[in-house]
TrEMBL record:
Gene3D superfamilies: Ribonuclease Inhibitor
Name under which the protein is recorded: Leucine-rich repeat (LRR) protein
Domain of life: Bacteria
PROSITE patterns: LRR (PS51450), PROKAR_LIPOPROTEIN (PS51257)
Protein keywords: Leucine-rich repeat, Repeat
Keyword Repeat recorded: yes
Pfam families reported for this sequence: LRR_8
Keyword Repeat: yes
């Protein structure tokens, strides 16, 4: 990931060298001074993971490179970092995407709250036991990927990030459905797969903004009727639980009964689903009207019920456009 990021950075910056106007592929570079090829290469060399530097030296070199080039992505993935200096992210107000995945972090430095432009943060494959509260002061944060950690608790302060639309919390140690999510009506995608959740609260009805929900590989025994309040729900993954029945309210959710042309044959696209507004807000590239940049969420609409204890479903579920079912499930649609 780092090498691809650096290659793109070099291409973007050098594309403007020697021209009367800088190129617009990377908007943040427009306001940064122009660099010679040798200068840029020197910064890149300092950020090389394979030249014997310590992880902290690499971190500081990469931060220096991002400051100099005003690039929007900082990639510190896979450095085996277990801690970061509190001031490490000072001066990075322009960074919009941060990769800290595949390290050994259990907390974040205080200076991350100064990254006021941060939209997406990747924290998977670390040692977090709680959702990092240092993120709570970043008002524009949109997506948090924090799977494969040891999180068992989420502070109520998370609801103060009104901009959050996607939280990927799969492969953690949650034993209860975090109540704070029911107070976040603007949340669009929530992945709680592969935890140890056994009960879903009736208050889930308040999560009216959800378009995608995964509870796969948990210990859920029943789904409350309150799920009928999720009028925008399009992707529902309930596979590998202990369900014996489903509330009829699911069969009446409007987005699940809409016919879809060219359906993908899959339900869960919570990780990769893109949003058109990201072109402008994150990458600085205006999207042409009518130009399709990401797969439609409807291409992944449906319910995944595989590997449960359901023996039959009400015929109302025949209205659902796409379902993945165990062969033993009886549903009479005649």
């Amino acid at each position: 990931m780092l090498q691809r990021t650096l290659a793109l950075m070099i291409f973007t910056l050098l594309a403007g060298c020697g021209q009367s106007e800088p190129q617009k592929a990377e908007p943040e570079a427009n306001n940064a001074p122009q660099y010679s090829e040798a200068e840029i290469q020197r910064y890149v060399d300092q950020c090389d993971k394979h030249d014997g530097k310590s992880p902290l030296e690499i971190v500081r070199a990469c931060v220096k490179l991002i400051k100099a080039t005003h690039y929007h992505t900082l990639d510190l993935k896979g450095l085996n970092i277990d801690s970061l200096p509190d001031d490490v992210f000072k001066g990075l107000e322009h960074v919009k995407i941060l990769y800290l995945s595949e390290n050994s972090l259990s907390s974040l430095p205080k200076s991350i709250s100064e990254m006021k432009s941060l939209k997406v943060v990747h924290l998977g494959w670390n040692e977090f036991k709680e959702f990092p509260v240092e993120l709570f002061d970043i008002e524009g944060l949109k997506d948090v990927y924090i799977s494969k950690n040891k999180i068992s608790h989420i502070d109520e302060g998370l609801k103060n990030i009104n901009s959050l639309r996607r939280i990927i919390l799969s492969h953690n140690e949650l034993k209860e459905f975090p109540h704070v999510f029911t107070e976040m009506p603007k949340l669009k995608i929530l992945d709680l797969g592969t935890n140890a959740i056994s009960e879903i609260p009736e208050s889930i009805r308040n999560m009216s903004g959800l378009i995608g929900l995964s509870l796969s590989y948990n210990d859920v025994k029943a789904i409350p009727a309150g799920i009928g309040g999720l009028e925008n729900l399009t992707m529902l993954d309930l596979s590998s639980n202990d369900l014996r029945s489903l509330p009829i309210e699911i069969a009446h959710l409007p987005k699940l009964i809409e016919p879809v042309e060219n359906h993908s044959g899959f339900v869960n696209n919570l990780l990769g689903l893109g949003f058109e507004e990201d072109g402008e807000e994150i990458y600085g590239v205006s999207i042409l009207k009518g130009y399709k940049t990401t797969p439609s969420v409807s291409e992944y609409s449906g319910i995944n019920l595989l590997f449960n204890d359901i023996s039959s479903l009400d015929r109302e579920f025949c209205k659902v456009f796409f379902m993945k079912l165990d062969s033993k499930v009886v549903i009479n649609c005649n």
